[in-house]
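Aim 2 progress update. The chain analyzed this quarter is reproduced below.
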Amino acid sequence: MPVRPRAAASGPLRLRNFRLLLAGAAAGQLGAQVTLVALPLVAVLQLNAPAFEVGLLTAAETAAFLLVGLPAGAWVDRMRKLPLLIRADVLRAVAMASIPLAAVAGVLTMVQLYVVALLTGVATVFFDVAHQSLLPRLLPKEQLVRGNGALETIRSSAQVAGPGIGGGLVQLLGAPLAIVADAAGYAVSALFLWRIKQPESRPPRVPGSSLRKDVGEGLRFVFGHPLLRVIALGTGLANLFSAVLMATQAVFLARVLGLAPGAIGLVLSAAAIGGLAGAVCAGPLAARIGGARLIWLSPLATGPFALLWPLSGRGGPGWALFAVGSAVVSFGAVVYNVAQVSFRQALCPPRLLGRMNATLRFVMWGTLPLGALAGGALADAFGARVALVWCAAGFLLVPLPLLLSPLRRMRELPDSAGVMDTGAETGSEDAGQETDAGDAGSETDSRQDARLLDTATEAGNVPAGVAGSPDGVDDSHEGVARV
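Predicted structure tokens:
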């Protein structure tokens, strides 16, 4: 459906379909941020689960990245995007609604929480990949920067407000009933997406293509480039220890520091504030310091603040240390994310963007369930504070592969010049749909701004406690370095 010139010139909010997308994002993001607080508290407060079982719950939430993360990009490239988004939202709404219903009936168990976490995780992987492809269909190119900016404002606002609201709802209604907010958010999001009227045909099959070939092409591109390899290693390492934090922070804040659910929500909101500040400062820092330097300097400068987590204690000053540590680490995570995602987007041929991102998400996010299991086991065996000591020590190691790479001798990152595309530039739907603002590289300042906004958006998918990261240090519920 062509966009009327007058509507395009006056801004994306004049376009009905974009307003519906924005409203759906607001509902879904707010509900999801509430659950980031409420779901682990269901296990901790309602079911009195031991630390290892809480870690297993976090592993179930993130296992989808390891199970379906690699082929998700190729699968989504073959599907209509809008119906896929609606089905994913409906599945997440139904799954989440089952938790308060089971609690009221007195039959809620940890097994059900594991199943719900796994189902919603799989749906989220497909939702996030498809969502990145929908915006360029709804907006003209000149409006992508403003459109991504509006979506990022919604995402960041939800990350700041959601944990506090979630903690308050848990304290007022109990943890299981607070999950109703997430189920309602996904249902409302599906309703808004259903009202979008955008003609969309099923993408044509490329002759000779197969899932195995598509996945293999993405793997060859990522692991054949020395800088992409080291970025994948550094980000995967950061996410490994970020998952240790995700698995233990609810136990630590509730049982060790003795915080009420409302206070836990406020502490976790501090991380989102740090991530938002990182998104604002990333562009100016990259211009002043250099994009290559920023990739290794940001985790090197902010990683030591993770030591504040195990040093936290009871009382206001004690839990304030936890909040400050989360805010500073999140700041560095988002700054890192902006630098490395912008590099990836400029480097990769447009037709490979979907497969490159899916490959990197598999490598980077695949460490999340492993870290969650390790965090739960450490907390169960030695206590949550000891698990956080190991988590903080891990963050000190994150910059090492980056410092030992060619990045340390570079100021700016190379662009796509000289990068061989192993396949023909066919102008396929990959190129047109997998490029959010600035995905296809940049010849103009506006495209560079678009990449930064898209990167900040991906950075907004960080788990509670280290806000601001799905790509690096996104994409929706994309640790500290999540891509």
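The mean pLDDT is 77. The radius of gyration is 21 Å. These observations will guide the mutagenesis experiments scheduled for the next reporting period.
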